[in-house]
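Worked example 3. Consider a protein that binds iron/sulfur cluster.
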Amino acid sequence: MPGLYLHIPYCKQACHYCNFHFSTTLHNREGMIEAIVQEMKLRRAALPSVPLASVYLGGGTPSLLTHEELNRIFSTIYELFSISEDAEITLEANPDDLNLEAIRHLKDTPVNRLSIGIQSFSEEDLRFMNRAHNAIEARTSIEYVQDAGFENLTIDLIYGTPTTTDRQWARNMEIALEYDIPHISCYALTVEPRTALAHFVKKGKVPSPDEDQAVRQFEQLMDIMELEGFEHYEISNFARPGWHARHNSSYWRGKPYLGIGPAAHSFDGDRTRSWNVPNNARYMSGINLWAEDPSKVPPDLIEEEVLTDDQRYNEYVMTALRTIWGLDLEHLRQMGRRYANHFTARADVFLDSGHLLCEGENYRLTNAGKLLADRIAVDLFV
Ligand code: SF4
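Given these inputs, the predicted complex is written out as C-alpha cells:
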C-alpha cells in the first residue's frame, strides 16, 4: 500500500552535521502550510486510489508546528486521501518541543507514532552536535510521551562522534533499553558537504570521525540489540518483533509514495522518482503558480528521473541487501536474466568471505557484511 510523506522545512537551529533541507527562519510558516495543503490537492491523483498505509511528517522539525497548523494539515489529508484504519501516522519530534502541552495537543491528532531525535543522552555529545535540546530534555521527552500513552515510539541515536566514548555509547543504548522503546534507529556520524561540521573539520577545529571508532560502536550496537531481542531489520534500524516502521519499510521494499513539501521525494513504485525544489521561497511561489493553472506544472518545481534498467538493478541491490528481507534472485530474473547472472557471479566472493549469506534464492548481509554494506553493494553493481 502507498504512503504519504510531508516535509516540514523548519528547524529552531542548525545541527552541525545536518544536510537535510530546512530553514531556521520561521517567518511565513503560514504561507508554507498553505502551499503544502495546495500541493496535496494538486497531486492527490499521483497515488493509486487505495487506502494509504502510512503518513509520515518529517523534516526539518514537524514538532514545531502549532496545534492549528497540524489540524489544518491532517484535515486536508483526511479530506483528500483514504487512510487505512490501522495506518501508521508518524511525526518526527525534537525533545525540546515535547512539553506537556504540546503532547496533549498531539494526542488530539491522528498521530500514533513518534520519532524522537534524541541523538544522545550525553550533554557533551549534544553540545558537539549543536542540538537544541539538553540531556535532561532527552529523557523527559520520552517520559512525557510514554506517560501520555504513546507506545509506538522510535528514537534516533548517533554514534561515532569524537565526544562519544565506547562507554557513553553503551550508556546511550542502556538508557534507551531502560525506557523499553520498541524501535531504535542508529546512524554513524558522517561529514556531509556544506555543513558546519565539514567546515570545522576542514579548519582543523574538530577531528574527522574515526572510522575504527564507528566500526567498534556499530559492533557494540549489533551485539547489545541482538542480546536484547531486537530485530536488526535494516542496517540502521532495530525493532522489537512487530514494531517495524511501516512507512520506511515501504520505501525499502519499493512501494509507491508521494512526497509533499520542499525537497520531498516521490516514487511511483516502478521506475519514476521525482523531487520538489529544495528551496522554501521557490517551492511556495511554484505551488501558488500551479494552483492558478492546475494544467501547467511550473518548470523548476518538480524534477523527475526515470530509472534505467541498470539503475533499478543497482538500487534494488543496494536497498534489499541492507534489509532483513534480503535480495530475491527471482526478482532479479524478472528484471532480466543478465542481472541475475551478474549478481550471482559477483556474489560468490562475498559468500566465500562470509560477508553474504544465501538461503535458497535469498541473499542477505551477515554482521561482518553489514560493516561494509556500501562497498559490497558497489562491487555488485552493473
Ligand atoms: S533538527 Fe533535524 S533536520 Fe533540523 S538541523 Fe537538526 S538534524 Fe537537521
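Take a moment to read the result before moving on. The chain has two domains: 3-252, 309-380. The pocket of iron/sulfur cluster is lined by residues 11, 14-15, 18, 20, 22, 59-61, 94, 117 (CB under 6 Å).
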